[in-house]
Design a protein that fits this description.
Elements: H1 2-20, H2 26-47, H3 50-57, E1 60-84, E2 89-115, H4 118-126, E3 129-141, E4 144-152, E5 158-181
Antiparallel strand pairs: 1-2, 2-5, 3-4, 3-5
């Protein structure tokens, strides 16, 4: 249990660092998250043009920009939003991730979650806690990605994708990820 506390602490610190880069005003912060979300979507669509149709057909999606560090144990944190197409509503969210395994890296990643049902989207926004395993060999610099991550975050009725924007990641790890509504931005 002690390792879980350490990992959660690392993830929290990384998540907090990501938020300090945003301007202080709520509307400006929301605009920054929306801008980052669109930039991430554009990168996903460029890397895999089929994703645009998948996102357009889905009842909703979530996009996060994360920053992480790992060496056997690690953590990541970031922010993003979940978009509910039916309600035409964005929910601003934060995330933290802790990992343990045979992995090493320092990276900035984009994560896309495409929901297959409205129920799955609502469960994600309302409950947010997910677990998964992951394997990666990926690198990125100046916004370009080489290689690619693979894995599954065990989000029921959803598919997840990730791109390494900057940094290097190698290995396999068990991960625990927490997503939650950002009380400041909603």
């Amino acid at each position: 249990m002690r390792i879980h506390s350490v990992l959660a602490g690392v993830a929290f610190v990384l998540a907090s660092v990501g938020f300090s880069a945003f301007p202080a005003d709520k509307a400006t912060k929301q605009a920054e998250v929306q801008k980052a979300t669109q930039a991430s979507l554009d990168k996903f669509y460029k890397a895999n043009p089929k994703l645009k149709g998948e996102v357009e057909a889905a009842p909703g999606y979530a996009v996060f920009t994360t920053y992480g560090l790992s060496f056997l144990v690690g953590g990541a944190g970031g922010s993003g939003l979940a978009h509910d197409k039916g309600a035409k509503k964005d929910t601003y969210m934060s995330m933290a991730q802790a990992s343990a395994g045979i992995d090493a890296g320092l990276s900035q990643r984009d994560m896309l979650v495409v929901f297959k049902s409205q129920k799955a989207l609502h469960r994600f926004v309302d409950k947010g806690w997910e677990f998964g395993g992951e394997g990666n060999i990926a690198a990125g610099a100046a916004g370009k990605t080489a290689g690619g991550g693979s894995g599954e975050n065990m989000i029921n009725e959803a598919t997840t994708y990730s791109l390494t924007r900057n940094g290097l990641e190698v290995g396999a790890a068990l991960t625990g990820t927490k997503f939650w509504k950002d009380s400041e931005l909603n």
